[in-house]
Task: structure prediction
Amino acid sequence: LKTVTEQDLQTCSKVLNIPKAKKVSVSVYPNPMRANQESTVKISGMSDEELQGAVMSVYNVQGVQVYATRNVVEINSLTLSGLDGAYVGHIITAKGNDYVYRILLVK
Result:
């Protein structure tokens, strides 16, 4: 390969095998939810192997963890007893992938 100024360029014939990103979704229902009401956190697009070793946690707007579990499956139950407002949930896999979802707690 040569540049427009006739300089030789070295190329690499190695093929890159970059896997496509998976479509993972996390949904919470009902959302908004009430304090002490059981809700469901459904995870779609993740295999059972990926869920093993995952951690599901929820934080309030001050960054304080209000819920955490290491028992993460495709359909999880969640009950929050806290003040009204917005909460941020994280599902972090054993490989370090972080999937974020939001929860609204109302009166």
Notes: The longest helix spans residues 48-51. The first strand starts at residue 25 and ends at 29. The helical segments are 48-51.
